[in-house]
Write a structure and sequence with these properties.
The chain is mainly beta. Helix content is about 5%, strand content about 40%. The chain contains one helix and ten strands, in the order E-E-E-E-E-E-E-E-E-E-H. The strands form three sheets. A four-stranded antiparallel beta sheet has the order 2-3-4-8, with no helix packed on it. A three-stranded antiparallel beta sheet has the order 1-10-9.
């Protein structure tokens, strides 16, 4: 059974927006889609480490603000002709709050 950490109210992240969560092991980008789905990924694009939390969210993807790489919020995989992947982390919404899996956050390597 996982332990979950409460990071914010769902309403604190705008639809098609993101927030950065700083951990002892690096930064995690938390995304909210137009349909209120929530995803958590490493904040560094696999191409040149662009800050994904500053990217444009569309559907279940984010476009890196530096070089327009499109990353799947569901899998962390680069889309189209680009190749690479960022780590994804379990995230969920409960009672209007965004929760992240503590165990996964503790196991992540420093970005």
């Amino acid at each position: 059974m996982s332990d979950w950490i409460d990071i914010a109210a769902l309403d604190a992240v705008p639809q098609r927006g993101a927030r950065l969560v700083k951990t002892l092991h690096g930064c995690v980008a938390v995304f909210r889609t137009a349909t209120d789905a929530v995803y958590a990924l490493d904040n560094a694009c696999p191409h040149k480490k662009g800050p994904l939390a500053d990217g444009i969210i569309h559907g279940a993807s984010v476009t890196c603000p530096l070089h327009n790489w499109v990353i799947s919020l569901e899998t962390g995989l680069a889309q189209g002709a680009d190749a690479g992947q960022v780590a994804t982390y379990p995230a969920r919404v409960a009672e209007g709050r965004i929760l992240l899996d503590v165990e996964f956050l503790q196991q992540r390597s420093v970005a």
